[in-house]
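Trying the structure run again after the queue cleared.
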Amino acid sequence: MVICFDDYPKVLFIQQSREQLTPKVVGFVDTVVPLITQLNSWVQANPQLVQGIAGVVAGLLVFKTSLVVLRMALNLVALTPMTAIWKGFLTLRSGWLMMSAAFSQGGSLRRLAGLMGRLSRGALRLGAVLGGGLVRGLMIAGRAVLFVGRALMLTPIGLLGLYGLWGQYR
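Done. Tokens:
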């Protein structure tokens, strides 16, 4: 084994730690070995009792494992989606109850609701116009400009015009 000069303090620390820990480990082993010997003699004297205890422990472990697996399966299949649906339903119901209570009071809140209804209908109409004919019209106009540009580049007159424009911006 090659030890570098930089590793010397580490090796010295490990050696000192081993020298300090060895009596403590030996003392612990001397304490534990008689306990293990007594336990071994008790197990040899009572094999039926040990077998019964091991069976009960194994049964409890199997029962606990099956409960954990069942709970995980229920969470995966049934409880998580049902909980989400129930929570959504309760949120919707509580919001509806608060809104109906607020509107039943009348006054400025009722007028505000009417204004919001008119604004939403207007936004819906604007969205229909922008999403329908206007977008289609802009698409047609854009395609027409591209078509004319390609047509001009493929004719001699278009090429001369491009050359003239290029000369101005050069």
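The CA atoms of residues 39 and 45 lie 10 Å apart. Worth checking whether this holds up in the mutant runs.
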